[in-house]
Design a protein that fits this description.
The structure holds two protein chains of two kinds. Helices cover about 35% and strands about 25% of the residues of chain A. Chain A has eleven helices and twelve strands. In chain A, a hairpin with a 2-residue loop joins strand 6 and strand 7. Chain B has a three-stranded antiparallel β-sheet. The chains are: A alpha/beta, B mainly alpha.
């Protein structure tokens, strides 16, 4: 870890450092001198679905209050890795996770950790907008309610309004807070889901291809929103669109066949990838 | 690729010809399949239609019955009783009750048949000779008890005349409705020629009229007075059984479905449970009846013929239906909804009760109502726990002896007065079918209402 930082002092031209992984493959790492301090980090994470290994020895540091993008062809394990970060894999029958993921130095998979509390700290936005079949207000208020975050009705209303404002949805829905959330357009629904995640006050927000079901206009609105949110939240986004990764993220990690092939500053990955596979992917030869 | 797949115009022609050659057969196959579908639906409709036509055409006549409008004279020469006892000051309640019972016995001992006979005679046109037997055969045997009860209620009627509508006997009803062959010789007729002639005359003069037979819904079964036999006992008995089923099967069924689907680990044991629940759904209902007789009656000692036992047996029968239907509607909930709740930090229980259950409620409700409606019509298990006994009483509690609607149908269809009870049986079937159709309609309506609320 220290060598990583030392080399980062030498700037972009520094030679790639490689971490020796368990079964021999090496992740190409380019350190970022401008990166913010790390809060969330994964070490040697492997995921198995039954007998099938979906993720092999993934180690990565996620800097706080910035956007990290996970890219790679379909089935490469990027969503699997994302779901490890708030233990959503626990809900899948037969899924097994080894290795260590730490948030502020605390292992998320240690027996002392309560998943419910963990998921309040690490929120998630899904691929398809999935608002509850309830009113817009109820959707946003649900998280604070179950976690007991609001002491009074007015406090709850304040949380809802602030979250909707942060998600850039308030102006569009302020007159119909009690209309069903499922009646909104796809892009609005996704922003509602983001507002719902924000309302719990998470430290990290995971986004699993949040724009894949949206049209280009809704996508650009969400991308702007992500850019604003990074001032306050640590965001990890899985995306199929390399343009999107390039536009919104500061750090990019490229996954291929369950392996983390290369990670580094987004600019660097897209302009000067070191690994052949990364190069092939971003130039469109695989994926 | 050969030239048949090139873009050349001759290749395109050949391709089109090849496609066209198969088109006729493809369209023919489609037409045949559609025709078979329509045919299947028509057959099903025809069967259901003929069932309804048979039941209704046989049963509708039972809803009206012949009634004799006449005048009753509470003749003091026939009803020779003392004035009813009054409670004396200083007399104990037990003494008074004993005295009153003695008086009632005296009233009962009076020859009420003669009162009935006189009432019939009051309606007989002058010039017609008729014996006492022939006169009383005109009205239902239960009418003398009705008159007695009216008198006990109001002893002041002694010596009074009262306009009174009497239910004609089942035999007269048969004769007038034509459900018995009028050309049969006298020895094969159930009524004497005089009574038959009288009935015809009274119908013509308007003294006998056909009226809606409300007593089908308010009276209990009767063998001595078949014309007054009703469904009240069966209706209340079935109602109690439904109550037991709803109170037991719904909470147990829904709770086990939720546990199995949402919380139980997937292992050998839960697989075994699942297989057995599915097996249970396929067990013939008569086996449940045997089980009920062996366990609830023999072992636990619950009373025979009681709706509580029927309800318990039907609960066992309905449970698998409810569990299976509830599980499948839980399984139909999109995973995205569960993920949304879990991703926010909801616990599993919160996820189920806040999000999954509200969405599945219409499905669970429909499953429940259909299960209960199915239980309502179930007969075989009831026969084994004694619900087919002749019980001429409305049960006060689920622990009292009672009959049930399907058991009543079974009893009536075996009644020896076929001519009369054939229509009665169909009428009872109509009542049962109406109840079931109503329940299913409620299920559909509730489902639509709840789904609109979503």
């Amino acid at each position: 870890m220290t060598s990583l930082f030392r080399s980062s002092l030498q700037g972009v031209a520094a030679p790639p450092t490689a971490l020796e992984a368990g079964d021999g493959y090496q992740t190409v790492r380019t350190p970022d001198p401008k990166a913010k301090p790390t809060r969330l980090s994964a070490h040697d994470v492997c995921v198995f679905y039954g007998d099938k290994q979906a993720l092999e020895n993934v180690s990565i540091d996620i800097p706080e209050r910035s956007v990290s993008a996970l890219i790679g062809p379909s089935g490469c394990g990027k969503s699997t890795f994302l779901r490890c970060l708030n233990r959503m894999n626990d809900t899948i029958e037969g899924a097994r996770v080894t290795g260590e993921i730490t948030l502020d130095g605390e292992n998320l998979y240690s027996p002392q950790v309560d998943v419910v509390e963990l998921r309040a700290r690490i929120g998630m936005v899904f691929q398809k907008p999935n608002p509850f079949p309830k009113s817009i207000f109820e959707n946003v208020a649900y998280g604070p309610k179950i976690h007991g975050l609001a002491r009074s009705k007015s406090e709850l209303e304040e949380i809802v309004v602030t979250s909707l404002k942060r998600a850039g949805l308030f102006e569009e829905v302020k007159d119909r807070l009690h209309a069903p959330g499922t009646g909104l357009s796809g892009g609005q629904q996704q922003r509602l889901c983001i507002a719902r995640a924000i309302a719990v006050g998470p430290e990290v927000i995971l986004m699993d291809e949040p724009c894949s079901a949206l049209d280009p206009i809704a996508t650009s609105i969400i991308e702007e929103l992500i850019d604003e949110l990074r001032e306050n939240y640590t965001i990890i986004i899985v995306t199929h669109s390399m343009q999107q990764a390039a536009r919104v993220s500061q750090k990019t990690a490229f996954f291929h066949l369950g392996k983390l092939i290369e990670e580094g500053p987004t600019e660097r990955i897209f302009t000067n990838p070191r690994d052949k596979k990364t190069q092939d992917y971003i130039t469109g030869r695989i994926g | 690729m050969t030239d048949s797949f090139t873009v050349s115009s001759s290749g395109a022609e050949r391709r089109r010809a090849r496609i066209r050659a198969g088109l006729g057969r493809r369209h023919l196959f489609e037409r045949i399949f559609r025709g078979l579908g329509v045919l299947a639906i028509l057959i099903a409709l025809a069967l259901v239609g003929s069932l309804f036509w048979m039941v209704i055409s046989k049963g509708y006549s039972a809803f009206t019955q012949a009634n004799l409008e006449t005048e009753v004279y509470f003749d003091p020469d026939i009803i020779k009783v003392d004035p009813p006892p009054q409670q004396q000051p200083g007399q104990s309640a037990a003494d008074f009750r004993a005295q009153r019972l003695a008086w009632q016995r005296q009233v009962t001992m009076s020859n009420w048949n003669r009162v009935v006979e006189q009432a019939v005679r009051a309606a007989v046109p002058p010039g017609l000779e008729i014996t006492a037997r022939e006169a009383t055969a005109l009205v239902d045997a239960g009418e003398r008890h009705r008159l007695r009860d009216i008198f006990v209620e109001n002893p002041g009627l002694l010596g009074e005349r009262l306009p009174f509508t009497m239910l004609a006997s089942a035999d007269v009803d048969n004769w007038l409705k034509g459900t018995i062959d009028r050309d049969l010789p006298d020895e094969r007729q159930q009524l004497s020629p005089a009574t038959r002639a009288l009935a015809d005359q009274l119908l013509e003069s308007g003294a006998i009229q056909f009226k809606f037979a409300w007593h089908i819904f308010t009276n209990v079964d009767s063998r001595s007075a078949p014309a007054s036999a009703g469904l009240a006992g069966g209706l209340v008995g079935s109602l109690y059984m439904m109550l037991v089923v709803v109170l037991l099967a719904v909470p147990i069924g829904v709770a086990s479905a939720i546990y199995l689907e949402e919380f139980a680990p997937k292992n050998r044991l839960t697989d075994l449970i699942e297989v057995n629940i599915n097996n249970l759904a396929a067990v013939p209902s008569i086996v449940f009846g045997l089980f009920g007789a062996a366990v609830f009656i023999k072992y636990i000692g619950l009373p025979l013929s009681a709706p509580i036992v029927g309800g318990l047996v039907l609960t066992l029968m309905t449970l698998p239906t409810i569990i299976i239907a509830t599980r499948s509607s839980l399984r139909a909930v999109p995973p995205s909804l569960r993920q949304a709740a879990l991703g926010l930090g909801a616990s599993r229980t919160q996820m189920v009760f806040h999000h999954v259950l509200p969405v599945t409620l219409p499905g669970i409700l429909t499953a429940t109502i259909i299960g209960v409606a199915q239980a309502l019509g179930e007969t075989a298990p009831l026969l084994l726990i004694g619900m087919n006994a002749f019980v001429a009483a409305v049960p006060g509690t689920p622990f009292d002896q009672s009959t049930a609607l399907p058991a009543q149908i079974y009893l009536w269809q075996g009644n020896e007065n076929r001519n009369f009870f054939e229509a009665r049986t169909s009428a009872a079937i109509m009542v049962l079918l109406t109840l079931m159709i109503t329940m299913n309609a409620i299920a559909v309506l509730l489902r639509q209402r709840l789904e609109r609320l979503k």
